Amino acid sequence: MILLLCSLAFGQIPEYTFVEAGEPAPFSGRLFNDAASQLIADELADCTERCQIEMDYQIGLILSKKQQEMDELKSNHKYETEVLKSKVKTQQERIEDLEKLKTPPKRQFWFITGLVSGIALTISIAKAVE
Description:
mainly alpha; 3 helices; 6% strand
């Protein structure tokens, strides 16, 4: 508003008329001519355009920051998911390897070996007791 008044003071000097109470205007004050009122209207219109442009800029800036945060969160989520899947896969492989180590690889061999040794041991003990 101060800029508007300064620009009016240094530019074209506006003409105005004093209106006192009781005259045809219902208020006391100043009435500007068409040129001054046009300058004021142009300044207000320019101000609203600048305000709208600034608002659009600030909203765009906020939206882009939010989009960047969303992209970063999605990227972090994807990374964490991949890390966890890798850990699960590694643990599953480890469990399978331990399961293989737990059971003897040749059950029939050990069964037959144990059966033959048991029979041989029983026969030896029986002969030693006689």
